[in-house]
């Protein structure tokens, strides 16, 4: 058997050392970046009960609330939900000290593999929901419920194309003026979305285009949406008649339920909504004679699209 020259073995040795070192350097850089992002996030929090006391040292995958991907040590989950959201009387008297508060650092966007984030039932009161959440494109689960946020829910959360669960509910949701979640997958919400929205009397704009909502649009026995001016729920999969409860929302200026599977007749009452300026019911399966509807007052109408239906007249 021919022997391999010593100088060749030496070259292979140094090549293997270089590959190993570069590999470890890459891993170490990732570890350092993930840990620094978590430390920055912690630095913005107020933690009166030291819930994050384990957040020290280098092994962040064992820190409280942190979950890592096996092998890579990439952070894939952060679960810092308040463990005692509903304390019983005479029990957990210091429950409020379990609340995290402060500010949510944008360093979270450096956690490129983060899929699960739950900060619910903490006390981030009087601060708006951060715009940087739109950049966390691997998120599948996001819960910021009952945290006391104020202001609008960011309309650009539609950038989160992988998101399957989204919860911003709170004791303050009745103050929401603008709700935008275009192209966020709300399949798991089912038909509950109408009932949930009916609890927002101050809501003025609703944008739920392309959210994988489906089935019949539920009816409402009592309409609480007294301030709603715009509803945009196009490009979903509604197999439904036109939701006639919208005829009781006199504040409506714009309705867009295009590109769905609406069927049946268009209610005559749409032409009597006093503020209606824009109506788009195109690309559905609506049918019937529209002449009686077109003879209604339509006091302020500027745009009307009923195309790609089975209408005549």
Topology:
Layout: H1 6-43, E1 45-46, E2 66-68, E3 75-79, E4 101-102, E5 116-118, E6 141-143, E7 165-167, E8 178-180, H2 193-197, E9 205-207, E10 214-215, E11 230-232, E12 237-238, E13 254-256, E14 263-264, E15 278-280, E16 285-289, H3 291-294, E17 303-305, E18 310-312
Parallel strand pairs: 3-5, 5-6, 6-7, 8-9, 9-11, 10-12, 11-13, 13-15, 14-16, 15-17, 16-18
Antiparallel strand pairs: 1-4, 2-3
Architecture overview:
The protein is of the alpha/beta class and 313 residues long. 15% of the residues lie in helices and 17% in strands. The protein contains 3 helices and 18 strands. The protein has helices at 6-43, 193-197, 291-294; strands spanning 45-46, 66-68, 75-79, 101-102, 116-118, 141-143, 165-167, 178-180, 205-207, 214-215, 230-232, 237-238, 254-256, 263-264, 278-280, 285-289, 303-305, 310-312. A 6-stranded parallel beta sheet has the order 8-9-11-13-15-17, with no helix packed on it. Strands 2-3-5-6-7 form a 5-stranded mixed beta sheet, with no helix packed on it. A 3-stranded parallel beta sheet has the order 14-16-18. Strand 2 and strand 3 form a beta hairpin. The N and C termini lie far apart (94 Å).
